[in-house]
Design a protein that fits this description.
By secondary structure, the chain is mostly beta strands. Helix content is about 0%, strand content about 50%. The protein is elongated and about 55 Å long.
Length: about 70
């Protein structure tokens, strides 16, 4: 599997709960992630931080880190 760095923009400063539309901020935050390419289409890229079971017939992907 290929390891790739990905730079992307995310919402920034989102308050908790419901907000009035005119009160929502329009700022973004530049984020950088690194991971194994698990799936890719023309418009999406899915990366995962860990791949296990490499010595088995079917590997496993861990998509969340806590």
């Amino acid at each position: 599997m290929e390891i790739v760095p990905v730079k992307w923009e995310d919402a920034f400063g989102c308050p908790e709960g419901w907000q009035m539309l005119d009160g929502v901020g329009r700022e973004t935050s530049l984020v950088q992630s690194v991971g194994f390419v698990a799936a890719e289409t023309e418009t999406t890229l899915t990366i995962v931080p860990h791949v296990g079971g490499l010595n088995r017939e079917r590997g496993r992907l861990l998509e969340r880190v806590y």
